[in-house]
Amino acid sequence: MSARIIDGKAFAATVRGKVADHVARLKSDHGITPGLAVVLVGEDPASEVYVAAKHKQTVEVGMASFEHKLPADVSEADLFALIDQLNADPNVHGILCQFPVPDHLDERAVVARIDPAKDVDGLSVVNAGLLASGEKGLVSCTPLGCLMLLRDQIDAMSGLDAVVIGRSNLFGKPMAQLLLQENCTVTIAHSRTKDLAAVCRRADILVAAVGRAEMVKADWVKPGATVIDVGITRIPHPDRPGATKLLGDVDFAQVSKVAGAITPVPGGVGPMTIACLLANTLTACCRALGVTEPEGLTA
Ligand SMILES: Nc1nc(=O)c2c([nH]1)NC[C@@H]1CN(c3ccc(C(=O)N[C@@H](CCC(=O)O)C(=O)O)cc3)C=[N+]21
Q1: What residue's CA is closest to ligand 1, atom 12?
Q2: Which helix (H) or strand (E) holds 5?
Q3: CA distance 142 to 140
Q4: Which of 14, 113, 215, 286 has the fewest CB atoms within 10 Å, i.e. the most exposed one?
Q5: Does the record carry Oxidoreductase as a key word (predicted)?
Q6: Pocket test for ligand 1, best of 106, 273, 274, 281 (most atoms within 8 A of CB)
Q7: DSSP 3-state assignment of 165?
Q8: Does the pLDDT at position 180 exceed 70?
Q9: How far is CA 20 from CA 27, 147, 165, 250, in A?
């Protein structure tokens, strides 16, 4: 048997379409254009590519995109001054500082400086706490994207066993909270978990976010399970010199023979991350205006 391939690229396009419809309505009914500010510190080539993709898609859905590139040696004070200015700017509804930032800057302090109402990455202590308490906040984009894919794939998540491999604040913890909210029985596994393969084999929903290429093998997966691969490891292309190739945390060739459904890499979770960033910016804008927020784009 072979698994259904979950087309995250196509799903992300439908999410962006919904966002674009609501953006058009905000413009016509309220004269407001939602705005996203992206701050990039330094010149990491991978980050430049992501930030360019974010800019392009922000403009495509009709939002305003504000890019701020700062030198790698920018002081914390100067970075904070920019964030303060964006916090105060009524045309900016979402703020994202691309990670990683150079070592002399503290990511947690950067996130803490962003107004929680504009924290479209959902990384602030306030938004993490709101999610953990089951209250309305902004949810980290990648877990939100995975939730949307899972809701689309699975009619009834209630009561299913879900295993999340990875416990980061950016992904593993919020993903676990979202699955719990869907009434799954949730296990957060990580590098110290005993007999990881056996733990994973219990999962009806297996979400891999460890950052180790192709670690999840076929005998870790319950036949018929839904497998979500959050890993992105870039390696030199085996056949094409100079080119690169992306690998997930799941050994796709093996696992796709056992799973019921699986996300590919690329074309799975990755495109959903940016779509959800746009969805979060729209949500933040609607809340700032006090107008009804769109359905199906939030947790
Ligand atoms: N503050 C912050 N928030 C983030 O959300 C954030 C960040 N920093 N730093 C870097 C990571 C990485 N990330 C991705 C976004 C899109 C794809 C994506 O679209 N991937 C495509 C194509 C990838 C390609 O071909 O290069 C795919 O998987 O199909 C992947 C990864 C967001 N991140």
Answers
A1: 50
A2: strand 4-5
A3: 6
A4: 14
A5: yes
A6: 273
A7: strand
A8: yes
A9: 11, 20, 33, 33
Identify the pLDDT of residue 1: 67
Tell me the β-bridge partners of 161: 185
Active site includes 54?
yes
Give the pLDDT confidence score for residue 183 in this predicted structure.
98
Answer yes or no: 195 catalytic: no
Q: What is the ipTM of this complex?
A: 0.94
Fold designation for 30-117: Rossmann fold (3.40.50)
In CATH, the number for domain 141-270 is 3.40.50.720
The lowest-confidence range among 13-17, 172-176, 291-295 is 291-295
Question: Could you tell me if 233 and 227 are in contact, meaning their C-beta atoms sit under 8 angstroms apart?
Answer: no
| Mean residue pLDDT across the chain | 97
- The residue extents of the domains of the chain are 30-117, 141-270
Among 57, 232, 234, residue to substitute to test ligand 1 (most atoms within 8 Å of Cβ) = 232
Q: Which of 18, 119, 121, 222 is catalytic?
A: 121
Rounded average pLDDT over 189-200:
96
Helix axes 141-153, 269-289, angle to 10 degrees: 110
Does residue 21 have an active-site annotation?
A: no
Pocket of ligand 1 (CB under 6 A): 50, 96-99, 121, 141, 232, 246, 265-267, 270-271, 273-274
The answer to whether domain 30-117 and domain 141-270 are alike in fold is yes
Interval 70-124: pLDDT, tens? 999 999 999 999 999 999 999 999 999 999 999 999 999 999 999 999 999 999 9
